[in-house]
Amino acid sequence: MTSRIRAEWFSNIKGDVLAGIVVALALIPEAIAFAIIAGVDPMVGLYASFCIAVIIAFVGGRPGMISAATGAMALLMVPLVKEHGLQYLFAATVLTGIIQLLMGVFKVAKLMKFIPRAVMIGFVNALAILIFMAQITHFVGISTMTYVFVAITLIIVYVLPRFFKAVPAPLIAIVMLTVAAIWGGLDLRTVGDLGEITQTLPSFFIPDIPFNFETLAIILPYSFALAIVGLLESLLTSSIVDDMTGTESNKNKESRGQGIANIVTGFFGGMAGCAMIGQSVINVKSGGRGRLSTLVAGLFLIFLIIVLGEWVVQIPMPVLAGIMIMVSIGTFDWSSFSYLRKAPKTDGLVMLATVVIVVLTHDLSKGVIAGVILSAIFFVAKISSLEIKKRSIGKVITYEVSGQLFFASTEQFIRAFDYTITDSTVAIDFSNAHIWDDSGVGAVDRVVIKYRENNNDVTIKGLNASSKKIIEKLAIHNDANAQVKTH
User: Fold this and answer.
1) Do 412 and 359 lie in a common domain?
2) Mean pLDDT, residues 75-81
3) Listed range (61-75, 94-108, 473-487) with the worst mean pLDDT
4) pLDDT value, residue 398
5) Are residues 307 and 361 located together in one domain of the fold?
6) Which of 54, 329, 382, 442 has a CA between 20 and 30 Å from the CA of residue 169?
7) Are residues 247 and 103 in the same domain?
8) Do 46 and 59 have their domain in common?
9) For the stretch 334-349, what's the b/e string if a residue is b when 16 or more beta carbons lie within 10 angstroms of its beta carbon?
10) Structural domain of residue 352, as residue ranges?
11) Phi-psi region of 85 (alpha: psi -120 to 50; beta: other; left: phi over 0)
């Protein structure tokens, strides 16, 4: 226990502290922007980011991953805030946490294994594109100096690490260029232009709503959607950080942790949040590996707001935009282009569909769900092809079935037989086949009945144990059961 705590918290103190500081600076404009998207005060996003980051550092299942207010969640909140107000959002945030906590308790994270690699690649690439697109408004068509600051930022974050690695390059870029902008009196958009920052700590309160079934009916659909999207984004981000760091994470613990964080956040005036791919990548690339980096990000964020608020609002947005562009470039899976050439066409189509749907809807859940469904359809189509060979020796006719017999292949199975045969012995050999479901059993029933209507003697043979069991359990034609033979 002690060694695990040491490894997760104190094995990389310098790297975690510096990375956490960089992440905190990058969190501020994101949290404000997401709060504005949701239609709430900027402090709601900042309080959420502070609370979630600090809590998830202790109860999350993935050390080094950053969780805070996110755009995917903010988009889902818009109708609730518009129609019912801020207090209902806080209540929905608490309920979101309760649902996620229950999902973690019941180990819903196991469903992650049903997300194909093509969907994962599409998810990552879509996020990279969305991160880049979100920065466009901060530097395109504003001023020449804005472009200059973005370019200088990118040069610093890419070139400086080749010569100096003691301090993360993004942190150096933020400090140097902020000082330069203030000293030079340059006309640049700043963090303060996004919204007003109030230098006060969040306080505990119970949402001011009626506690009845009518309120539950209002917030439950939103909370359920938020819980699903938040959990999906968190678990996928967790898997990405696993790959980047070469370490494992506890997905069910992460689900429980996200739930606890959102429950607490709702009582401290914050909006629901989840893991952030962009900030998690910044953290890892800046040297963050342990829980301390996540804790420092949350604590330094509130320190920036309370103590250094007057300075934080003067950070030029082109600098933060440049850092996020670096994140989007690093997040994008550039091997996707060769993947499209080498992978099966169906996998490439799934990846592209996931990217397109996420980018068009700005909804990660829709893209991932569509990708999973599309993968399932292609998989079913791929394995539903049966091969049935006919052999005749006098009055004995044998059909050798190869493949998987289930709901998607029953029509092909039924059409493959010649029902004009009379007064013969028909053997259906399943030695190279498997019967999966009631539809498959029903198809066998129909074939047997049709042959016996023409006075044929029908034998089913070669069934493996599983297929034999389902035939005996579900076959309608009792005589068929008496004729079943196994290997």
Assistant:
1) no
2) 83
3) 473-487
4) 93
5) no
6) 54
7) yes
8) yes
9) eebeebeeebeebbbb
10) 348-383
11) left
How many distinct structural domains can be found in the chain?
3
Q: Is residue 159 part of a domain?
A: yes
* Cα gap 9→290, rounded to integer Å: 5
312 and 411 housed in the same domain: no
* 110 band by pLDDT with thresholds 50, 70 and 90: confident
Question: What is the SS3 assignment for the chain?
Answer: CHHHHHHHHCCCHHHHHHHHHHHHHHHHHHHHHHHHHHCCCHHHHHHHHHHHHHHHHHHCCCCCCCEEECHHHHHHHHHHHHHHCHHHHHHHHHHHHHHHHHHHHCCHHHHHHHCCHHHHHHHHHHHHHHHHHHHHCCCCCCCHHHHHHHHHHHHHHHHHHHCCCCCCHHHHHHHHHHHHHHHHCCCCCEHHHCCCCCCCCCCCCCCCCCCCHHHHHHHHHHHHHHHHHHHHHHHHHHHHHHHHHCCCCCHHHHHHHHHHHHHHHHCCCCCCEEECHHHHHHHHHCCCCCHHHHHHHHHHHHHHHHCCHHHHCCCEHHHHHHHHHHHHHHHCCCCHHHHHHHCCHHHHHHHHHHHHHHHHHCCHHHHHHHHHHHHHHHHHHHHCCCEEEEEEECCEEEEEEEEEECCCCHHHHHHCCCCCCCCCEEEEEEEEEEECCHHHHHHHHHHHHHHHHCCCEEEEEEECHHHHHHHHHHCCCHHHHHCEEEC
Answer yes or no: do 230 and 357 share one domain. no
Residue 340 belongs to a domain: no
Domain check: are 227 and 80 in the same one? yes
Find out whether 42 and 194 touch, Cβ atoms under 8 Å: yes
Beta bridge partners of 67: 275
My answer on whether 359 and 468 are in the same domain is no
Query: What per-residue confidence (pLDDT) applies to 259?
Result: 94
Q: Sorting pLDDT into bands at 50, 70 and 90, what band is 129?
A: confident
For 381-398, write each residue's pLDDT tens digit. 888 888 999 998 878 899
Its pTM stands at 0.71
Matching residue, tokens 């009582």: 267
- The dihedral over CA atoms of 416, 422, 427, 429, expressed in degrees to the nearest 10, equals 0
What pLDDT, on the 0 to 100 scale, is given for residue 477?
Answer: 54
The angle formed by the CA atoms of residues 467, 468 and 474, to the nearest 5 degrees, is: 90
- 373: tokens are 């469904």
pLDDT tens-place string over residues 267-309: 998 999 999 887 888 888 888 888 999 999 999 998 988 887 7
